[in-house]
């Protein structure tokens, strides 16, 4: 059974005095609590000293990060730190030891192409360019846009401007 009374007493004294000696004593007490929890929770062979040390350090860091922080249930919080050190910490070590291949990099963002020329060319080629833009914009798919344009434009015009219409359709989706 874990006895938290000594730790709570030390915590109350530390919160008033902020003495590093009291903090060191709190660390030793937290390490003892972490050791007993580690022995209970570890499912495989682990270094009990290292795990209890890392758990106690993680727990004591909270006092240094936030001066107003205090623990109402130290054993429960230390138990969470022990679980972190037992299971998450292993994965972090593996991630640090495994080098990434040098050719793995973030791909550069594609440069947005200026496609105003498409609208200008459609405007020059057809007197119904506003309807074309509106129909292409409202269509849910490219095929739907082409079928809509087919109702009032000749197919030869659509075939001749298919690539431009496709660029126009893509640009209305960004």
Distance between the termini: 62 Å
Give the overall silhouette: rod-shaped
The percentage of residues in β strands lies in: under 5%
Structural Rg: 33 Å
Tally of extended strands? Answer: 0
The share of residues in helices is: over 70%
Mean pLDDT: 83
Uncertain segments: none
H/E element string? Answer: HHHHHHHHH
> Biggest β-sheet, characterized?
none
Oligomeric state of the chains?
Answer: single chain
Class from secondary-structure proportions: mainly alpha
User: How many helices?
Assistant: 9
Q: How many structural units, i.e. domains? A: 2
Please provide a written account of the structure:
This protein has 174 residues and is mainly α. The protein folds into two domains: 5-97; 116-171. It is 70% helix and 0% strand. α1 (5-17) runs antiparallel to α2 and α2 (20-41) packs across α4. The radius of gyration is 33 Å and the shape is rod-shaped. The protein starts with a helix and ends with a helix. The mean pLDDT is 83.
